[in-house]
Design brief:
The chain is mainly α. It contains four helices and no strands. The protein is rod-shaped and about 105 Å long.
């Protein structure tokens, strides 16, 4: 004759299987998140590199026009954002680089700013 399995044993096996299944779900999700974090880190590093190249471009133009601008620490994102929206030379360069100004207009504005005394 067949052996009767007690309900408590069935319940125990069910819960053990549920725990194993949930652990597997968790591990799969955690592995997925780890891959996403790694990808995000790589993308962020590439973005930072591109930002640094953009700053170098601004510095090269500003140096060529002898416009000394003191930039805040690169970690000061708010300070950089404010500087780029408030400083006339940087707004002029941004307008030029975004094709809102012609090279002649940009040149004239930068020359005018360079000749103005005490402009930072």
């Amino acid at each position: 004759m067949s052996k009767v399995i007690p309900f408590s044993e069935l319940n125990r096996q069910h819960k053990l299987q549920l725990l194993n299944h949930k652990r597997q779900e968790y591990q799969e999700r955690e592995n997925y998140l780890a891959r996403l974090r790694k990808l995000l880190f790589q993308v962020e590093a590439q973005m930072r590199q591109a930002e640094m190249e953009q700053f170098q471009l601004y510095h090269a133009i500003l140096d060529n026009f002898h416009l000394g601008i003191t930039f805040p620490n690169l970690g000061d994102r708010v300070g950089l954002q404010q500087l780029f929206t408030q400083h006339p030379a940087l707004t002029t360069l941004t307008d030029f680089l975004e094709e809102h100004l012609t090279p002649e207009q940009c040149f004239e504005k930068l020359e005018q700013l360079r000749q103005e005394p005490d402009k930072d």
